[in-house]
Amino acid sequence: MRCLVLSDIHSNLEALQAVFQDAGSVDQVWCLGDVVGYGPNPNECVELLREHDHLCIAGNHDWATLGKLDLRDFNPDAREANLWNRTQLTGDNLAYLEELPETIIEGEFTLVHGSPRHPIWEYIIYPSTAEINFQYFDTPYCLIGHTHTPGLFQLDNRHDNSRADAVAPRWSAPVELASKRLILNPGSVGQPRDGDPRASYAILDSEALTVEHRRVAYPVEETQARMMKADLPLRLVLRLGYGW
Ligand code: ZN
Questions:
Q1: CA 174 to ligand 1 centroid distance, Å
Q2: pLDDT value, residue 15
Q3: 114 alpha carbon – ligand 1 mean position (Å)
Q4: Is the dihedral of CA 63, 67, 73, 74 positive or negative?
């Protein structure tokens, strides 16, 4: 099965449309949470995702927008954008977000937003955090989002104590998942934070067991213009321009 793996869309419709177009035909979409928050088009993003055969789990911004997390735990810009997203969402789309599970296990893959240990909140940025988290899922592979940084961690158990190593993405080149256990992050569709403003995603072939990290440009200025019109925080508008 050819899967489009994406995460952290954050109400950015132009970025999501570019990803769907660039990915071409896929059998299923696997979304790793944070469909809404930050950006200007929460309804359109939820609805475009729902047009596809897909799996989706909840992210911290989805929960914050629903009021399931304390907004005081978010920085002022994120809080303001979440509150605005909440006012925009239709009852039907709020109900859809409300139903999203925290974890999905699909074949050889565990899908979570943050980490298998703490699906909603924990950030896996460092190999040391990844190393601990390998104990918290039973499948060979785990797919995560939340950090907005594409890449993967692989478990090297040739040593007495299993060690996790960080591996940078190889762009547009399928990588064999092979026999090592992996935690893989496709990066963020709607608000990349690795210094590249292009939307980030991955294509997974669950039979051939290959994964390919990909990047696609989208009209950032259009998203920024919509954000300005909605009076969303300027810092959130500007960061899309430099991918941070
Ligand atoms: Zn996010």
A1: 25
A2: 98
A3: 9
A4: positive
Task: Quickly count: other Cβ atoms within 10 Å of residue 154's Cβ.
Answer: 20
Give 131-189 pLDDT, tens digit per residue.
999 999 999 999 999 999 999 999 987 665 678 999 999 999 999 987 789 999 999 99
Measured in Å, residue 234 CA sits from the centre of ligand 1 at: 18
Q: Which strands make up the sheet holding 141-143, listed edge to edge?
A: 103-106, 109-112, 141-143, 182-185, 151-156, 163-167
pLDDT for the residue 95: 97
Spans of the chain below 70 pLDDT: 158-161
Q: How far is the CA of 98 from the centre of ligand 1 (A)?
A: 17
Write the CB contacts of 199 (distance below 8 Å, at least 6 apart in sequence).
12, 15, 16, 18, 19, 188, 189, 190, 192, 215, 216, 217, 218
Expressed in angstroms and rounded, the spacing between residue 143 Cα and the centre of ligand 1 is 14
pTM of the entire predicted model: 0.96
Q: What's the 36 CA to ligand 1 centre distance in angstroms?
A: 9
Q: How far is the CA of 107 from the centre of ligand 1 (A)?
A: 25
